[in-house]
Amino acid sequence: MVEWSELLLPALGASVLVFIASSVIHMVLQLHKAEYRKLANEDDVRAALRAGAPAPGQYLVPHCADPKEMGSPEFVRKLEEGVNAVVYVRPTGQVKLGQFLAKWFAYTLLVGLLAGYVAMATLPRGVEYLTVFRVVGVTAWLGYAWQGPSDSIWMGKPWSLTARSMVDGLVYALLTAGTFAWLWPGTA
Question: Angle formed by the axes of helices 97-122 and 159-183, to 10°?
Answer without folding.
Answer: 60
